[in-house]
Amino acid sequence: MSAAFSNFEEFRALLDAAPSADESALKGAQDRNGQLTKPPGALGRLEELAIWYAGWRGDARPKIENPQVIIFAGNHGVTAQGVSAFPPEVTEQMVLNFQHGGAAINQLSNAAGAKLSVHALELDLPTADFTQGPAMSEQEAVDALLTGWNAVDAETDLLVVGEMGIGNTTSGAAILNALYGGEAEDWVGRGTGVDDAGLATKARVVRAGLAANPDRAGLEVLRGVGGRELAAMAGAIAKARVARIPVILDGFICTAAAATLADENQTALDHAVAGHVSAENAHFNALKNLGKEPLLAMDMRLGEGSGGALAINILKSAVACHSGMATFAEAGVSDG
Ligand SMILES: O=C(O)c1ccc[n+]([C@@H]2O[C@H](COP(=O)([O-])O)[C@@H](O)[C@H]2O)c1
Ligand SMILES: Cc1cc2nc[nH]c2cc1C
Question: In which pathway does this enzyme or protein participate (predicted)?
């Protein structure tokens, strides 16, 4: 099988050619929503969610039967600068934990009825320290984008992407600072739990990373200060966009990866909703820049797809109401 793309330009072209939501399914879902046995608007945001889902699936009365959660794991050279409360070995140790079913995401995926896939990306080859130059070459970033692209199952009807990577909140902060401006301090947070000195180190590292990587275009930012697991998340989100598979974004790092796509093409995230707002300092602001209102605010800051997986339950409930409820005519209920 030949690769779907072999450089950034070809990847961009695929994003630019991606189809929009199906207008007739959207219209059909809106009509159906207006006939269901409830006062107009009484299901609040569940109604707009179900209609949005119907449009992307091309079905006015859809079902969610095959949700997939994918975790991508990567290691970061920038951990040498002391940016995390945990050592880099934890990335690989947690991958084993995911594979043995012992992590939070295993339980949350099960509870949501989702299949969980885990992809470790060259854990023994951390990205380069981005304070010294780009974290990845274009080829390395393309390989990671392809891993993500190819990880999405064809029969998936709802996708959550998550990550595991000690040091990656510093990458996320650097990406968002590069794309949206402001000061490094606006974008760094405590991640796995650094103290005030650690927070100051993260701001210094982000500043140095932006100085060493001056290009501000989405994919260049992704390779400059991102990481393999972030590029893989971007690849999976892009594949879902092309295949019209709705996506639930997870936390801070996932949002930063997604933001690089939106910078390349402003419709790149039209098929995505924000699953939650994480407790990581700048996540809310990142979502605001993307125009995404989070479904949940649970003070979670775990990553590994956890907030997105939890939000699958919301989307399933929205679609179950939309597709399962009786209309006023069917139920013999008088409408207003
Ligand atoms: O998703 C989030 O919002 C989030 C917020 C804080 C930490 N994390 C997770 O913690 C790890 C990165 O934290 P750190 O301190 O090593 O940069 C990484 O494995 C993420 O999955 C994730
Ligand atoms: C234990 C642990 C679990 C995680 N899951 C996602 N990021 C993580 C970071 C740590 C440190």
Answer: Nucleoside biosynthesis; alpha-ribazole biosynthesis; alpha-ribazole from 5,6-dimethylbenzimidazole: step 1/2
Tokens coding 225: 């200060």
| Rounded distance between C-alpha atoms, residue 32 and residue 131, angstroms | 54
31 vs 48: CA distance, rounded Å: 12
CATH of the domain at 13: 1.10.1610.10
Please indicate whether residue 47 is annotated as part of the active site: no
Same domain for 127 and 222? yes
pLDDT at res. 309: 99
79, 93, 168, 280, best to mutate for ligand 1 pocket (most atoms within 8 Å of CB):
168
The span from the CA of 144 to the CA of 74, in Å, is: 10
Phi, psi of 183 (to 5 degrees): -100, 155
Number of compact structural domains in the chain: 2
Together in a domain, 50 and 173: no
| pTM confidence score | 0.99
With a cut of 50, list the residues of the chain below it in pLDDT.
Answer: none
Q: Which atom of ligand 2 is nearest to the CA of 105?
A: 5
Spell out which residues line ligand 1, taking CB within 6 angstroms.
84-86, 163-170, 191-192, 250-253, 278, 280, 283, 301-304
Task: Confirm whether 336 is domain-assigned.
Answer: no
Indicate which atom in ligand 1 lies nearest the CA of residue 162: 21
The two tokens of residue 118 are: 């885990």
Taking only the tens place, the pLDDT of each residue in 55-81 is 999 999 999 999 999 999 999 999 999
Could you identify the atom of ligand 2 that is nearest to the CA of residue 303?
A: 6
At position 89, the amino acid (one-letter code) is: E
Q: What is the ipTM of this complex?
A: 0.99
CB of 90 closer than 6 angstroms to any ligand 2 atom: yes
Q: Is residue 69 a contact partner of residue 105, using CB atoms and an 8 Å limit?
A: yes
**pLDDT, position 147:** 98
For residue 85, give the ligand nearest its CA: 1
